[in-house]
Design goal:
Protein name: Olfactory receptor
Number of helices: 11
Family: Belongs to the G-protein coupled receptor 1 family.
Organism: Equus asinus (Donkey)
Shape: globular
Strand order of the largest sheet: 2-1-3
Main location: membrane
Number of strands: 3
Structural class: mainly alpha
Order of helices and strands: EHHHEHHHEHHHHH
Subcellular location: Cell membrane
């Protein structure tokens, strides 16, 4: 058998958008702005949730975790992509590729499950408001977050070595702007179907199962909202959940399209832009969708800035 890890001595070439040189500078400027906004927005949310006692609630504990994950998600590949877009050098070291793949798989899996945890939090808040603080006690919140982190890390620990040790017969060109699992699997010169099937199984557990729990939670929420007689009450309940539903739709929509289909069915360019969407656009939008229009967060921000 050919030595599987023959690429460990060499760098990979991230093809990215190098076939469109005029597009590269436009993408550099746009992505730099979006990444800066994502870092600023998510860092602000984390700081506010730590500094303001009024935000020491289960909802904002989960939001702070989501913001941290979004920071990790974007930072795992966007800086490298900006370097590659800026100049002619498109290389990434083998170790850098391993770190990027592991970060991408782990953080992506954690975020999928965390969104399900947040849906359960909204279910308790809407359907059992009088018992909310009793049910969502700090120990349970920590356990739920630990399950999310543990599941994502297991996914990365299993899939990263299997993907990186596939024999590539000296192929170095990754037809993507990051070391993403589907692009690396397509480089293999051996039968990669067992790895693809295992990846599909993990996708069912980490993507579809949490999504099912989210849909069930919102089914109960919808039923509870319909039982509310006052229009103001229904509007308040809807506003409580609309932000989470928006982010779930953006994140899960692109993830499912990318990973829950046969490996060769989508074009490479389409896959690159979809990856860029959930790796940069969604983390940039999350602070705006979730909290920056929230009165409690705005109040905490004014307090930190000394305007209250």
């Amino acid at each position: 058998m050919e030595k599987a890890n023959d690429s460990s001595e060499y760098a990979f070439i991230l093809v990215g958008f190098s076939d469109r040189p005029k597009l590269e500078m436009v993408l550099f400027i746009v992505n730099f702005i979006l990444y800066s906004v994502a870092v600023l927005g998510n860092s602000t949310i984390i700081l506010l949730c730590v500094l303001d006692p009024r935000l020491h609630t289960p909802m904002y504990f989960f939001l702070a975790n989501l913001s941290f994950l979004d920071l990790c998600f974007s930072t795992s590949c966007i800086p490298q992509m900006l370097v590659n877009l800026w100049g002619p050098d498109k290389t990434i070291s083998y170790a850098g590729c391993v770190v990027q793949l592991f970060s991408f798989l782990s953080v992506g899996g954690i975020e999928c499950i965390l969104l399900a945890v947040m849906a359960y939090d909204r279910y308790v808040a809407v359907c059992k408001p009088l018992h909310y603080l009793v049910i969502m006690h700090p120990q349970l919140c920590l356990r739920l977050v630990a399950v999310a982190w543990g599941s994502g890390l297991v996914n990365a620990i299993v899939m990263s070595p299997l993907t990186m040790t596939l024999s590539r017969c000296d192929r170095r060109r990754v037809n993507h702007f990051l070391c993403e699992m589907p692009a690396l699997i397509k480089m293999a010169c051996v039968d990669a179907r067992p790895v693809e099937m295992l990846a599909f199984t993990f996708a069912i557990l980490i993507v579809l199962l949490p999504l099912t729990l989210i849909l069930v939670s919102y089914g109960y929420i919808a039923a509870a909202v319909l039982r509310i007689k006052s229009a103001a009450g229904r509007r308040k309940a809807f506003n409580t959940c609309s932000s989470h539903l928006t982010v779930v739709s953006l994140f899960y929509g692109s993830i499912i399209y990318m990973y829950m289909q046969p490996g060769n069915s989508s074009s490479q360019d389409q896959g690159k832009f979809l990856t860029l969407f959930y790796n940069l656009v969604t983390p940039m939008l999350n602070p705006l969708i979730y909290t920056l229009r929230n009165k409690e967060v705005k109040g905490a921000l004014k307090k930190v800035l000394g305007r209250q």
